[in-house]
From TrEMBL:
<feature type="signal peptide">
    <location>
        <begin position="1"/>
        <end position="18"/>
    </location>
</feature>
<feature type="region of interest" description="Disordered">
    <location>
        <begin position="38"/>
        <end position="60"/>
    </location>
</feature>
<keyword id="KW-0732">Signal</keyword>
<protein>
    <recommendedName>
        <fullName>Secreted protein</fullName>
    </recommendedName>
</protein>
<feature type="compositionally biased region" description="Polar residues">
    <location>
        <begin position="50"/>
        <end position="60"/>
    </location>
</feature>
Length: 60
């Protein structure tokens, strides 16, 4: 009977420890600030009037 009780208490203790570790990890991840979302590549804004600086080929 004592071995059964020891096995049960070991299972309960390990479940409590695993749950506490999981909550601790989640709490630690929530405390750290997220990095800024900085794009690796940026493109210049197109001109406001929609005209291109290079002439387009004429049809014809």
């Amino acid at each position: 009977m004592s071995r059964l009780l020891a096995a049960f208490l070991t299972c309960v203790a390990s479940a409590i420890l695993a749950t506490g570790a999981a909550f601790g990890i989640v709490a630690a991840l929530n405390v750290t600030p997220e990095p800024q979302n900085v794009p690796l590549v940026s493109f210049p804004d197109p001109p406001a009037n929609g005209a291109s600086s290079t002439p387009s080929p004429s049809a014809g």
